[in-house]
User: What shape does this take?
Amino acid sequence: MALDDMLNNKYLNPLELDSYVRSFIKDEKTHYIMLDEIQRVFSIINPILTSGKIQLGTLHI
Assistant: This one.
């Protein structure tokens, strides 16, 4: 998956990326994914530090 492709912009949100990847896993076998430009994915600020709210951090390139 090319994360620098405009068609994949929503997957810069790590929660969206996680849901997308997990949607393909149907068994307990080992699966491999290839992510190009993974550094573009936003970080998540620890919910414990934000009163349980999920907040996206800033993009660091």
